[in-house]
From TrEMBL:
<dbReference type="InterPro" id="IPR000719">
    <property type="entry name" value="Prot_kinase_dom"/>
</dbReference>
<protein>
    <submittedName>
        <fullName>Tyrosine kinase catalytic domain protein</fullName>
    </submittedName>
</protein>
<keyword id="KW-0418">Kinase</keyword>
<dbReference type="GO" id="GO:0005524">
    <property type="term" value="F:ATP binding"/>
</dbReference>
<dbReference type="InterPro" id="IPR051681">
    <property type="entry name" value="Ser/Thr_Kinases-Pseudokinases"/>
</dbReference>
<dbReference type="GO" id="GO:0004674">
    <property type="term" value="F:protein serine/threonine kinase activity"/>
</dbReference>
<dbReference type="InterPro" id="IPR001245">
    <property type="entry name" value="Ser-Thr/Tyr_kinase_cat_dom"/>
</dbReference>
<keyword id="KW-0808">Transferase</keyword>
<feature type="domain" description="Protein kinase">
    <location>
        <begin position="52"/>
        <end position="331"/>
    </location>
</feature>
<dbReference type="Pfam" id="PF07714">
    <property type="entry name" value="PK_Tyr_Ser-Thr"/>
</dbReference>
<dbReference type="InterPro" id="IPR011009">
    <property type="entry name" value="Kinase-like_dom_sf"/>
</dbReference>
Length: 346
């Protein structure tokens, strides 16, 4: 179907198609909201307390603005408002709608659930639970003694779910290198100290230049697989795959355990680029010095970074190895934060 065509839309498989003839390029925010509602996304407009919403965004930039709100029963929620760019092609809008729809269907303990959508001050808003502990990076800085290996397992579990669930198989794959531009924004900590991946769809949306405005932060060299580092002439042909996701997953796990971005020995990205050109991995940090569990963990990371993407493990395999090698029996039943700290301390 040509990008500028009108189309008749209906729910089919994992897709999202309008039930009436419409041009995607001309969809208003209200139209988008209505379309998502018709295809199963919950309309939470009546459940959000108008006076409980912040006047201004509490978090700005990124792929959208986030407001803090309250439901009628007093539950704190986050309301992410999508911002549309001035020039959108129909294919991009169609793709965006499908991704928001898919997010609404995701159900996993380590995925930040989309509760529903609302018409928020004339714009499409996505509602999710407010994560009172904020982002994982900030939480680690405040609680440096936490055993972080359980969080590695939880992040791998979320990624494995996205890679294996039928809802996400028919679409462009999740590009974790965009998710992992920092733990600061996209891996959140819930009330019970469980980590949840947020904005897993945003890399797809930004790749299609759709609803979210850019912040000028490009995909970080510190997380992107070598095969994604084509020249500008090759950029259009770069394909993001599950293997490139696994590479970025490995970098994210390194950041969780060390508390520092990958290649932290390099202050600037040109140092990282030189290291990548030489085929060098991040240096093994003191936090992963020789010891059975740490040695197994480091070897798993190295496998994730294999220059031959076909030789990298699947996300499910990463999850299995983490469960076997970094979560031995003596660490069982110690709670989501591991053996060094308990929930009572928070």
């Amino acid at each position: 179907m040509p990008n500028n065509a009108h189309s008749t839309l209906s729910a089919s498989g994992t897709g999202l198609r309008p039930k009436a003839t419409v041009s995607y390029a001309n969809l208003s925010n209200k139209d988008m909201f209505q379309l998502l509602f018709e295809h199963g996304c919950k309309d939470l407009s009546s459940q959000i307390h108008p006076a409980g919403c912040s006047e201004y965004p509490v978090i700005g930039g990124g792929y959208g603005d986030i407001y803090k709100g309250k439901t009628q029963d007093g539950t704190d929620v986050a309301i992410k408002v999508l911002r549309r760019s001035s020039s959108l092609d129909p294919k991009s809008v169609k793709h965006a709608m499908r991704e928001v729809h898919r997010w609404s269907k995701a159900r996993h303990p380590n995925i930040h659930e989309l509760m529903g959508v609302i018409d928020f001050r004339g714009q499409l808003g996505m509602v999710s639970l407010w994560m009172e502990h904020g982002d994982l990076r900030s939480f680690i800085l405040k609680n440096p003694g936490v055993d972080r290996y359980p969080w590695c397992i939880q992040v791998a579990a979320g990624v494995s779910y996205l890679h294996t669930n039928d809802m996400f198989l028919a679409t462009t794959l999740v590009e974790l290198s965009a998710l992992c531009l920092g733990l600061q924004m996209n891996i959140l900590v819930s009330k019970d100290i469980t980590v949840r991946i947020s904005d897993f769809d945003c890399s797809i949306i930004s790749d299609s230049s759709l609803l979210f405005s850019a912040t000028g932060q490009a995909t970080s060299l510190r997380y992107a697989a070598p095969e994604l580092m084509g020249s500008s002439d090759d950029e259009a042909g770069v394909e993001k795959t599950r293997q490139s996701d696994v590479y970025a997953l490995g970098m994210t796990l390194l950041e969780i355990v060390t508390g520092a971005p990958p290649y932290s020995e390099y202050r600037f990205d040109f140092g990282v680029l030189n290291a990548l050109a030489r085929g060098n991995f991040p240096k093994r940090p003191p936090a992963l010095s020789e010891e059975n569990r740490k040695d197994a963990f480091w070897n798993l990371l190295v496998r994730c970074w294999n220059p031959d993407r076909a030789a990298r493990p699947s996300a499910q395999r990463v999850l299995t190895r983490l469960q076997v090698e970094t979560d031995p029996p003596e660490f069982k039943d110690v709670g989501p934060v591991g053996k060094y700290m308990s929930l009572e301390m928070f």
